[in-house]
Specification:
Blueprint lengths: L10 H6 L9 E2 L9 E7 L3 H15 L3 E3 L8 E6 L4 H20 L4 E5 H7 L2 H5 L5 E3 L7 H9 L4 E3 L22 E5 L1 E2 L10 H5 L3 E2 L2 H13 L4 E5 L7 E2 L18 E2 H9 L6 E5 L8 H9 L6 E3 L7 H6 L6 H15 L4 E8 L6 H14 L3 E6 L7 H5 L6 H26 L3 E9 L6 E5 L5 E5 L8 E9 L3 E7 L1
Parallel strand pairs: 2-3, 2-4, 4-5, 5-6, 6-7, 8-11, 11-14, 15-16, 16-17, 20-22
Antiparallel strand pairs: 1-2, 9-10, 12-13, 18-19, 18-21, 19-20, 21-22
Bound molecules: S-adenosyl-L-homocysteine, iron/sulfur cluster and FE3-S4 cluster.
Length: about 500
């Protein structure tokens, strides 16, 4: 999934973080449309959840709610939760304890749990966490106004129905925490892959793709509003598929063929919105990424040359146990094709899991040796965390001791830090086209943006503003950031 570039100091946090590359909860910004009640939304986990919170805000705004970033003034509190690792769920429970304090002072406060943890625990949530009034899974957000009404009438409200069709295609998200330059567009929901370690297929349901017309329309609308980069989001974007016939959008006569839209086609359509609109996407799956996609990427300058291709493990036996659908050799062949078609400068990042069930010391070494072959620019690295209900929980023993997992993870992190730094050092002296995203984190006199390969580049502000494209010559770096000077 899409992720923010984090500082190298954050790497420890990432491995212990709640979701994909996110170390903190995100609170939606305030809106002032004169709504009669105020809703505070705090989101955990991956970009998909952050995107969903914008859909939730949009649905509620139509019902007369404003969002607020101030918990104290809220009438309704929603936590949009993540279940990916045990720690993510613990964070939410701790937060509910804190909110409980607030509810004691303000008994009319409505507390709701949304997202993956809501889906996993369903009505059990109401028994386990007594302060929760409302539970809504990821496909139930259209029902929120009715669920809130039910709570207003004094009942508890639960909807965790998972849909085979819901894509919220017609709802324009309220872009709440936006920099006005980059935005995310959900192109599909759910996942059918059943990786044995993963809870997502259970919390997000079956995979379904969104109507390509609504995706392109959303990209066009964002471009009109001044946005210059969109990231297409899905758990496995390579299995995007849309058929006009199956979706009854067109009546074809017998002589017409059904033009099925795959991810390569979709990518091309979005790239054609404007050459000034950059396109990124996440997540690619190693078993499904096609040469066709790579060729479309190479044909369009505005499709960024960066691929997040999570490997999880460098050992084929472990990959089989994970049900990932590819071997070490297959993965390395795909990386070879990426470099061949897109060139050696194409950015590559990964996710890694340390200490999966039954992983031997040699198998762990295979992950390190694969990293040495690929030399990723960046990775999200995690210790295996057993999730209730997953295939791994049913089939295998979580038998790697915590200290061993920790040690293996720290070896993976140390190697990744080295690769990130070395790769960045190779960029010193090169000039890149950068889309300006806003002020740098450290100083208002500097701006920051990213190059095509997704590397963060910091440079003196001068007269430049966000949303512009600039040329920056890199003169120094850390493992996480490139720094340089503007060139004309
Ligand atoms: N759809 C994406 C991943 C979504 S989850 C993909 O297939 O690549 C994001 C990452 O969390 C995964 O890539 C994996 O590295 C990690 N993860 C998922 N389940 C986990 C678990 N039970 N324990 C530790 N890490 C896990
Ligand atoms: Fe989880 Fe695998 Fe689906 Fe990714 S592809 S969301 S890891 S089941
Ligand atoms: Fe995302 Fe966490 Fe759900 S990573 S899909 S919010 S389990």
């Amino acid at each position: 999934m899409a992720e923010e570039k984090l500082l190298i100091e954050d790497l420890d946090l990432i491995s212990e973080g709640q979701g994909e590359g996110q170390t903190d909860a995100r609170v939606t910004a305030s809106t002032h449309t004169g709504g009669s009640r105020k809703v505070y939304i705090e989101s955990y986990g991956c970009q998909m959840n952050f995107s969903d919170s914008e859909i939730v805000a949009s649905i509620l705004q139509k019902q007369g709610f404003d969002t607020t970033s101030n918990l104290e003034e809220a009438d309704v509190v929603f936590l949009n939760t993540c279940s990916i690792r045990e720690k993510a769920e613990q964070t939410v429970r701790n937060r509910l304890q804190q909110i409980n304090g607030l509810k004691k002072e303000k008994p009319e406060l409505l507390v709701g749990v949304l997202g993956c943890m809501a889906e996993r625990l369903k009505s059990k949530f109401l028994e386990e966490e007594r302060i929760v009034d409302l539970v809504a899974g990821p496909d139930a957000y259209r029902d929120l106004p009715q669920l809130i009404e039910k709570v207003d009438e004094g009942q508890k409200a639960v909807n965790t129905f998972l849909s085979r069709e819901e894509t919220y295609a017609d709802i324009s998200p309220v872009r709440l925490n936006s920099n006005g330059v980059t935005a995310f567009i959900s192109i599909m929901r759910g996942c059918d892959n059943m990786c044995t370690f993963c809870v997502v297929p259970f919390t997000r349901g079956r995979e379904r793709s969104r109507d390509p017309h609504s995706i392109v329309a959303e990209a066009e609308d964002l471009f009109q509003k001044g946005f210059r980069e969109v990231t297409l989001l899905g758990q496995n974007v390579d299995s995007y598929t849309w058929s006009e016939v199956e979706n009854n959008k067109a009546r074809l006569n017998s002589r017409q063929i059904d033009n099925r839209v795959n991810f390569a086609h979709l990518l091309e359509r979005v790239a054609q919105v404007s050459p000034e609109l950059r396109i990124r996407f996440s997540t690619s799956h190693p078993k499904d990424i096609t040469d066709e996609v790579l060729h479309v990427m190479s044909r369009y300058d505005n499709i960024c040359k960066y691929i997040h291709l999570p490997v999880q493990s460098g050992n084929t036996r472990i990959l089989e146990r994970m049900n990932r659908g590819y071997s070490r050799e297959w993965y390395l062949e795909r990386v070879g094709r990426i470099k061949e078609i897109l060139g050696p400068d194409c950015g590559l990042s990964s996710d890694m899991i340390a200490g999966f069930c039954g992983e031997t010391e040699e198998e762990h070494q295979d992950t390190l040796s694969l990293m040495n072959e690929v030399r990723y620019d960046f990775s999200y690295m995690f210790m295996y965390s057993e999730r209730p209900g997953t295939l791994a929980e049913k089939r295998y023993k979580d038998d790697i001791a915590e200290e061993v997992k920790k040690r293996r993870l720290s070896e993976i992190i140390a190697l990744q830090n080295r690769h990130s730094l070395e790769n960045n050092q190779r960029d010193v002296g090169k000039t890149f086209r950068v889309l300006v995203e806003g002020p740098s984190r450290r100083s208002p006199d500097f701006l920051q943006g990213r190059n095509s390969a997704n590397k963060v580049i910091v440079f003196p502000k001068k007269n430049k503003v966000k949303g512009e494209y600039v040329q920056v010559k890199v003169d120094r770096c850390t493992g996480a950031t490139l720094m340089g000077e503007l060139v004309e």
